[in-house]
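hey
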């Protein structure tokens, strides 16, 4: 019986073919062809190669011949016959992005849909959707952004970040803010408990029983809430009362308090009190940069874990739940680790805006 001679591989092709057979991203067809060529180079008979690779003898002969003629390039798929596509992707993209991506006013819509664009261009909406998907065009999505216009942007960033990364010796740094208008919502029916295959369920409608405002002071070094209070309002009167609680929680020590630029934080009554309490210093985040205030991280946690899914029959019930959560949170609290340096933040903010900038 005739046995084909071993296939001679080009320099370096054995390693490349082996890499293809181990690849998790290569197509199954390409992996099979690479295995066929490798077995052929080892002198394995064509019939046995077909059995090992799950193919047929004519298939083995085909890929042996392709490799002999063109090398590894010959293992790829040849262009398929048929009419070339008539859809001009560039024209679809140009129409989508024209006028800053806004449809004509006569359509009365804020953004393109694949069906509206398909009607405009006289093609199928599936074709439009495919082109948008290929080029990562998403007219249905919108993201938000905010640029700070604070003239003291850089010094304020360096001041606040410096407190986080290099706190002053023999001093305490706390992050203070208020979470306003927390609603005491009572569901109209009892919630249905968690079950296998079903999440906890509650009615979509609710009864409002009022609101409260949570003031909290996060101790940066420990991650604990060192002072908290709930007030019905959040004017300078309540803020001053809370500052006194923070000062009482940290007596006889230099106290640095990070706050945002809310108007009540700069009220003359606040400044008058600070002039009398020189051991206390307020540090303001830049405008539109409240995310620099570390207590905002805690507000996100309490919202997710205690408020959003809670059921409260009164404001006092809500405030009790908030205090209970803070007591339990302090038992397990750990400090948040701030990693971004002031130079990193300023470099990102000052990054040159181009037509490709994503917000």
């Amino acid at each position: 019986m005739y046995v084909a001679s071993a296939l001679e591989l080009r320099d370096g092709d054995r390693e490349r073919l082996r890499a293809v057979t181990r690849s998790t991203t290569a197509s199954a067809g390409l992996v099979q062809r690479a295995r066929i060529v490798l077995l052929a180079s080892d002198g394995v008979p064509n019939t046995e190669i077909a059995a090992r690779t799950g193919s047929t003898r004519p298939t083995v002969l085909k890929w042996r011949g392709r490799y002999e003629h063109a090398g590894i390039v010959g293992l790829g798929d040849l262009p398929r016959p048929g009419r070339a596509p008539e859809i001009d992707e560039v024209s679809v993209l140009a129409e989508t992005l024209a006028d800053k991506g806004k449809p004509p006013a006569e359509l009365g819509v804020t953004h393109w849909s694949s069906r509206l664009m398909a009607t405009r261009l006289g093609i199928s909406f599936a074709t439009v959707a495919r082109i948008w998907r290929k080029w990562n065009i998403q007219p249905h999505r919108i993201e938000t952004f905010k640029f700070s216009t604070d003239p003291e942007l850089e010094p304020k960033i360096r001041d606040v970040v410096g407190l986080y990364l290099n706190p002053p010796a023999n001093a305490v740094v706390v992050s203070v803010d208020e979470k306003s208008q927390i609603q005491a919502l009572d569901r109209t029916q009892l919630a249905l408990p968690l079950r296998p295959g079903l999440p906890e369920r509650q009615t979509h409608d609710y009864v409002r029983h009022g609101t409260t405002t949570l003031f909290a002071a996060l101790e940066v070094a420990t991650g604990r809430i060192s002072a908290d209070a709930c007030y019905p309002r959040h004017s300078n009167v309540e803020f001053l009362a809370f500052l006194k609680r923070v000062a009482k929680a940290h007596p006889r020590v230099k106290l640095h308090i990070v706050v945002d630029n809310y108007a009540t934080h700069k009220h003359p009554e606040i400044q008058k009190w600070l002039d009398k309490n020189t051991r206390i210093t307020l540090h303001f985040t830049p405008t539109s940069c409240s995310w620099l205030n570390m207590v905002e991280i805690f507000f996100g946690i309490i919202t997710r874990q205690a408020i959003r899914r809670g059921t409260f029959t009164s404001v006092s019930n809500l405030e009790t739940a908030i205090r209970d959560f803070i007591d339990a949170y302090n038992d397990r609290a750990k400090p948040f680790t701030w990693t971004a340096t002031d130079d990193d933040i300023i470099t990102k903010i000052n990054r040159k805006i181009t037509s490709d900038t994503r917000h």
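The radius of gyration is 33 Å. Residues 48 and 57 are 9 Å apart (CA to CA).
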